[in-house]
């Protein structure tokens, strides 16, 4: 974020699910789910206890996610009337493995009306508790069983008070911005990046609208005055990365490296003006592939929305951008391109390799900022060292205000997206710069490639990065990372003894609420 043979949509059995996914991904998911379920088993409530909100124990978002099951696939159906201030009719179907015996289960859902819930085809009792939908099936679910939950509900695009994110109302329709904790404002889910799943989208809209979602198209069926568009992902995805665009849009197609299909979604009236920007994407993908390896997904593209969000967002395979970024003449070309590269970088760092907890978000934003800066250095002669020195100067102030990079302070009440502070952007990129200074460029570049390859389509945390960096460099780096990631004060920069972390006269990088952009320098 800045202030990114097909799997069957509804697998009928565990054996069908196993055939549809890479074996390594299935084994990693089952192992991770078992460990995670064990860690949070104390949170499970007995059947006689009152229904209440649960969570997977995330330090920053304690009530996000739910214990006791591991989602394998979502099938999301939305019906859009043509008016973006009215609730959409929706059906969410969840296929999951249970990781514990469940007399009832919780889903994250907080902004819509639930009409009915079924578990394995049988009606289930449901109630609300906090931002959870608590479901009691007709029969308890055995540990290790395959289950399907179907929720018929509405999805409200008008935000409630103190609820940020979810649907974004554009000038001609809707888009999504679910990071960090807002997917459950759109559909019932296990809303935590540790539980990635496959997605199918079925969106019905009037015929004069175009619909695009994550993944590849799987049909557009026109019936009378409406068309139902279907999209499917070919790789697992975190709920925060879901994207649906509904608007009077044009889809532009081009080819990326190795025949990668690239599709961009733009307001139809602006396609000619925006085309020069979009034409840059294939070369940007090729540049990043030269740094970290093959693009990790089945497609990519840019969604340019006529909306005022204050940020760009790396929704998987279809990054969300404000159209204003590309039409405002005050933004220099190098700056706009570096922001495009920031969101593109997230397809590797944050989307393919997702954070295990939200405290690991520095791995997302630090790497995206790193490649944003490296691109500006190599393509526009904007020295990375200059920006790093400026960040170093401000680093102690950032740590005091927002916490160190790997232990950000919890968001303030009513500002749940407040973890997106400078300490996890430029502050985290500064950690990577210090690491490159410490272990040398060849080892650092090797580390980056191995990281995205070993954790592709999975989740990983700070401890994983520390272990891999130590292995690649051939020495124990735990002390180095402890100081740089968790220290209240910024350690000395290797190779730059003259750099001093002092309070600057004027802020060099402004705070980025919800990933907002920095001012061009």
UniProtKB/TrEMBL annotation:
The lineage of its organism: Bacteria, Bacillati, Actinomycetota, Actinomycetes, Kitasatosporales. It catalyses: Release of an N-terminal amino acid, Xaa-|-Yaa- from a peptide, amide or arylamide. Xaa is preferably Ala, but may be most amino acids including Pro (slow action). When a terminal hydrophobic residue is followed by a prolyl residue, the two may be released as an intact Xaa-Pro dipeptide. InterPro entries: Aminopeptidase_N-like_N, Aminopeptidase_N-like_N_sf, Peptidase_M1, Peptidase_M1_aminopeptidases, Peptidase_M1_dom, Peptidase_M4/M1_CTD_sf. One of its GO terms (molecular function) is metallopeptidase activity. Its cofactor is Zn(2+). The keyword Acyltransferase does not apply. Residues 179-239 form the Aminopeptidase N-like N-terminal domain. The keyword Metal-binding applies. Its EC number is 3.4.11.2. Keywords: Hydrolase, Metal-binding, Metalloprotease, Protease, Zinc. GO terms for biological process: proteolysis. Residues 1-23, 491-521 are annotated as: Disordered. Residues 333-484 form the Peptidase M1 membrane alanine aminopeptidase domain. It comes from Streptomyces pluripotens. Belongs to the peptidase M1 family. This is Aminopeptidase N.
């Amino acid at each position: 974020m800045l202030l990114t043979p097909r799997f069957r949509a509804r697998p009928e059995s565990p054996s069908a699910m196993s055939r549809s996914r890479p074996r390594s991904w299935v084994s990693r998911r089952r192992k991770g789910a078992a460990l995670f379920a064990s860690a949070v088993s104390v949170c499970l409530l007995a059947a006689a206890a009152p229904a209440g909100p649960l969570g997977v124990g995330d330090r920053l978002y304690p009530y996000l996610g739910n214990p006791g099951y591991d989602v394998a696939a979502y099938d999301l159906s939305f019906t859009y009337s043509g008016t973006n201030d009215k609730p959409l009719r929706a059906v969410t179907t969840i296929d999951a493995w249970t990781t514990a015996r469940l007399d009832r289960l919780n889903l994250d859902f907080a902004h819509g009306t639930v009409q009915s819930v079924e578990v394995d085809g049988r009606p289930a009792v449901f109630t609300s508790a906090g931002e959870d939908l608590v479901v009691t099936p007709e029969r308890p679910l055995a540990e290790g069983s395959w289950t399907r939950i179907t929720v018929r509900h509405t999805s409200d695009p008008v935000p409630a008070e103190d609820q940020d994110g979810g649907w974004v109302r554009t000038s001609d329709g809707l888009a999504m911005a679910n990071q960090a904790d807002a997917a459950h404002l759109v559909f019932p889910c296990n809303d935590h990046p540790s539980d990635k799943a496959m997605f199918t989208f079925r969106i019905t809209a009037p015929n004069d609208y175009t619909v695009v979602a994550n993944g590849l198209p799987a049909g557009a069926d026109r019936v009378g005055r409406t068309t139902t568009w279907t999209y499917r992902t070919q790789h697992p995805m975190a709920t925060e990365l879901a994207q649906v665009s509904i608007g009077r849009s044009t889809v532009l197609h081009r080819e990326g490296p190795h025949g990668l299909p690239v599709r961009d979604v733009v307001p139809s009236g602006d396609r000619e003006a925006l085309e020069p920007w979009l034409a840059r994407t294939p070369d940007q993908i090729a540049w990043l592939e030269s740094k970290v390896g093959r693009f990790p997904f089945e497609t990519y593209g840019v969604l340019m929305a006529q909306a005022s969000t204050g940020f760009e967002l790396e929704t998987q395979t279809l990054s969300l951008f404000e159209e204003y970024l590309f039409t405002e003449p005050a933004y220099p070309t190098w700056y706009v391109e570096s922001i495009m590269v920031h969101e593109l970088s997230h397809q590797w760092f944050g989307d393919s390799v997702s954070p295990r907890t939200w405290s690991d978000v520095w791995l997302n934003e630090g790497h995206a900022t790193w490649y944003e800066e490296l691109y500006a250095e190599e393509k526009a002669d904007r020295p990375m060292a200059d920006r790093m020195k400026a960040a170093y100067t401000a680093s102690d102030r950032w740590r005091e205000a927002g916490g160190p990079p790997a232990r950000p302070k919890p968001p303030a009440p009513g500002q749940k997206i407040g973890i997106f502070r400078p300490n996890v952007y430029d502050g985290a990129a500064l950690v990577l710069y210090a690491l490159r200074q410490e272990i040398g460029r060849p080892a650092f570049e090797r580390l980056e490639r191995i990281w995205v390859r070993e954790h592709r389509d999975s989740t990983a945390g700070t401890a994983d990065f520390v272990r891999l960096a130590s292995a690649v460099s051939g020495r124990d780096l735990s002390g180095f990372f402890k100081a740089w990631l968790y220290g209240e004060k910024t350690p000395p920069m290797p190779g730059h003894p003259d750099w001093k972390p002092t309070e600057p006269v004027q802020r060099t990088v402004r705070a980025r609420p919800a990933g907002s952009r920095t001012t061009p320098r």
